Task: structure prediction
Amino acid sequence: MSITKEQAKIVRDLQLKAAANRQTLIDLTYESGYSHLGGPLSACDVLTAFYSHFLRWDKNHLEDPERDRFILSKGHNACMMYCIFANIGLYDREELFREYKNYMGRWGEHPNRFHNPGFEISSGSLGHGLPVAIGMAMAARIDKSDRRVVCLVGDGELQEGSNWEGIMCAGHNQYGNLILIVDQNKCQGTRLVSETINSDNLGERIASFGFHVIDVADGNDMIQIFEAIESIPRYPGEARQKPTCLLLHTKKGCGVQYMEDGMAKWHAGGIGDDKIEETRASIQNKLEISLAETDRILEG
Result:
């Protein structure tokens, strides 16, 4: 591990926040009866890292022209974003829990930027977020701004051709202000990605289009996530540098052991009375394991 003790303090805080965000999603699912779970849980750690530390973004100034843009292309992960936003005070938790997926409620299973503050785009139809993000990166260059554009996609989503057109464009134009995050949890819906298209050499493919690829062996390990994001420079808008791809090897349903064990079954689902305490305990147990690793750095 190469993080300093000061960085380890930040990581420890991020680990606690990620666990809190997972617990909120579990509670939201329990109360609503059904939600997307596997993908939101696999992306929880990197989303927490960006929104709690790395993103130049303020919930009190959502229209700041110099804010970093975060594009959630895999829109079915909106429920995790809702939980993050509720936990940082952008949303009222009681209102979110009352209205989530309810008729005429403001929060649906996919985000609507007109009703859900904090979202840059409405998403859900896969393959659309990255092209929008590249347009935003182009605009930042025109403005000579150092704002970043971060876009989260899933590995199954990369079967949409529009992503590869975007990757080709971003690499050719050297949008160094673009960060593409690939949540490679190896599942799409209720089947393995490899059953449709093998993506074992995904990093090599993306790099061949002119991206700098950072391969994160455990994309749910906050220490590894922190090290990877910390290594990415913030380029001036007019700079021409390789865009970055964070290739995160994650676990679908991460944080909940029985979901990790049966990941292809947990794209979406409900959590009943028979599972709620086991689910909460699993998240707490995995948090304690993660904290123990960070505490060894702090005590070293």
